[in-house]
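Hello, quick one for you while I still have it in my head. My current little project is about how a certain protein chain folds up. You're getting the sequence in one-letter code plus the fold written as tokens. Would you mind checking whether the tokens look sensible for this chain? Here's the protein in full, and shout if anything looks odd to you:
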Amino acid sequence: MAQPPLARYTPAMNLKRSFFALVVTCIATSALAQWQWIDKDGHKVFSDRAPPADVADKNILRRPAGRMPSTPAPVADTPPADATATGTATTLPAPAAKGAGVDKELEAKKKQAADAEAAKKKADEERITKAKIENCARAKQAKATFDSGVRVARTNAAGEREVMDDAARDAETKRIQSIIDRDCK
């Protein structure tokens, strides 16, 4: 009896095998997302759920990836009753003092951003002012040319040179005057 030839792997089959291996790896990795801690009797406990609240943070040996230890909010120390009666000053606890530093850093960053915005606005205003001065100078030069009575020629859309008639000169003079009125203040 003749045996069938062995099947050869095609690139599509290799791709399917690679995809299957990736899926299996992801599933196996999620199975590793286990909690490990030491209970009150000293035994190691493995679970897919978080330990009970009575387990100290130091007894938690392993957390699933991405789980950070829970840190309780710092509680401010209350001064003894006799300290307020005697009038002695109380100092802020370290976390509160550090929080005040964060506010100072935030305020400094806000001030720096506001200063940068003001500098950018000032630079934009200077650029606009410079452009207006240049436009004013060009418009005054063009007005002087038109007022001198010299023949002025333009190039039309077809690339031909044509001399401006009186109506076109008047329209151009009015346009130049509006530029002068706008930019030469």
Q: What stands out?
A: The first helix runs from residue 11 to 31. Residues 73-77, 82-90 have pLDDT under 50 and may be disordered. Residues 153 and 164 are 6 Å apart (CA to CA). The first strand starts at residue 35 and ends at 38.
